[in-house]
Write a structure and sequence with these properties.
binds adenosine-5'-diphosphate; binds magnesium ion; 21 helices; five-stranded parallel β-sheet; alpha/beta
């Protein structure tokens, strides 16, 4: 009984996918006076659960028992749910590399225009570490460089059992070096970095003008290259664009593969938005994600920032967030702030699409195009903008009850009416605060 209760509570707290993926090999072993013991039949999953779901589990224990109690997850080989994917099994012996984000994998990397070549090169590097060294990945802020470099690290770590790897930002490298100098431990410092098989350094541009660290890096570089080790660098600019950088180091960077990355195009960004949302817990409407991908084109970091804020907001409020609210919540991320009231914007867009005018839409006219504009508009306002029935009534000059009826009518018709659907999409694609599309062609 307690077992069912506990498992159900946990199940409610995690999303479905995570439940299937991580809790299929998980069970309650025993509940005693002072602790709860869970079993899991896969070591890798055990680590994962402890790392990622510790809080969820302890909260669930508290909820089920009515008080906090210690818990433990023990590894019980051959229990149920042992049929884990080969990739996960391989990862049992996975080495742990500090600083590597387990989410930054090739599997989580959406490939499209802008990053496709970079992905292919990075993949190749990961499959044959040491062969294409150094790899130098560069491009603007927030376009996926760190993700890709870490994907290389994560993949190598998953495949090779006995490998030594470091992932470090160049700033981290510098700080370590300063510390070593201060503590008279330069020997250890050098040992540590010159003994690895894979050396990944992020944000190398930070070392511009830092001659001493460049010198140290140059020596590390040479030692590792002599031993045919894999080096990976990320930078916000091409090697030759690095200022105040030793020429000999720049020429070293250029001697392997230099990979340029660009901000992915809008279609790829839409898929990335979905992937990020899924990674971060999900729950956002697809239309909203598309909207964000279209209107946040500064960097994928901002896209992610907007997504996690909206996910958090939805969880706090316990309801779906619509485009109108979203514009308000993440306006700082959007290309250009919209000064226009979204309902006004909608009416303007409708006027354009249905070849009429705002005053006609608000009038009593029964002309077919006007009626259509009104109906689809009300539905759009409800479904996508998540406006209240009263607000929609005001916008369209109708009573709330008329709005309710209309929305219902459209709802019923829309499934088998492709024309209505395409109109909705049209409105959606125009509904952008970004380009100032006040008039619609
Ligand atoms: P950079 O290092 O270029 O500044 P990051 O690698 O930190 O950018 O990427 C910013 C965010 O966008 C990260 O959360 C990353 O996971 C995500 N991201 C970038 N590119 C992709 C992609 N192709 N697929 C999925 N997520 C991506
Ligand atoms: Mg980065």
């Amino acid at each position: 009984m307690m077992r069912e209760k506990l498992l159900n509570i946990i199940k409610k707290k995690v999303n479905q996918k995570a439940w299937r993926k991580w809790f299929s090999a998980f069970d309650v072993l025993e509940v005693t006076e002072d602790r709860v013991v869970f079993s899991v039949s896969n070591l890798f999953i055990k680590d994962w659960l402890e790392q990622k779901y510790g809080r969820v589990i302890s909260l669930s224990v508290k909820e089920a028992l009515g008080e906090s109690r210690e818990y433990e997850i023990v590894y019980v080989p051959g229990g149920h749910g042992d049929e884990v994917k080969t990739e996960e099994l391989k990862s049992v012996k996975k080495i742990k590399v500090p600083g590597l984000n387990p989410d930054f994998t090739f599997e989580n990397f959406v490939v499209g225009k802008g990053n496709e070549m970079a992905y292919k090169f990075a993949y190749k590097v990961a499959m044959e570490p040491g062969r294409f060294s150094p790899a130098f990945i560069y491009g603007g802020v927030g376009i996926g460089k760190t993700h890709l470099a870490q994907a290389i690290g994560n993949r190598i770590a998953a495949l090779e059992k006995d490998i030594r790897m470091v992932y470090i930002t160049s700033e981290g490298f510098m700080n370590e070096m300063i510390k070593a100098l201060r503590e008279n431990k330069m020997e250890e410092f050098r040992e540590m970095y010159r003994k690895v098989d894979v050396f990944i350094m992020d944000d190398v541009q930070f070392l511009m003008g830092k001659n001493g660290v460049q010198f140290e890096l140059f020596n590390t570089f040479n030692t590792l290259m002599d031993m045919k080790k894999q080096l990976v660098f990320c930078s916000d600019r091409a090697p030759s664009q690095l200022k105040d950088f030793q020429d000999r180091l720049i020429s070293r960077f250029k001697m392997g593969i230099v990979i340029e990355m660009r901000l992915p195009d809008v279609e790829t960004r839409k898929r990335i938005a979905r992937k990020i949302a899924e990674r971060e817990g999900g729950g956002l409407e697809e239309e909203l994600l598309d909207f964000l991908a279209e209107n946040i084109d500064g960097s994928l970091r901002e896209l992610r920032g907007a997504i996690i804020k909206l996910i958090a907001y939805q969880e706090i409020e316990g309801k779906k967030v619509g485009i109108v609210e979203a514009i308000d919540l993440v306006s700082g991320f959007l290309r250009k702030k919209s000064t226009i009231d979204p309902s006004e914007r909608l009416i303007t867009i409708l006027s354009g699409i249905f070849d009429t005018s705002p005053s006609m839409i608000r009038s009593k006219s029964r002309r077919a195009n006007v009626v259509m504009a009104r109906q689809i508009g009300m539905f759009f306002a409800k479904r996508y903008l998540k406006m209240s029935v009263r607000g929609i009534g005001k916008t369209f000059g109708r009573s709330p009850s008329v709005v309710s009826q209309t929305v219902k009518k459209v709802e019923e018709k829309i499934a088998e009416n492709p024309i209505m659907k395409s109109y909705l999409n049209k409105i959606l694609s125009h509904f952008s605060p970004a380009v100032g599309r006040e008039s619609v062609e």
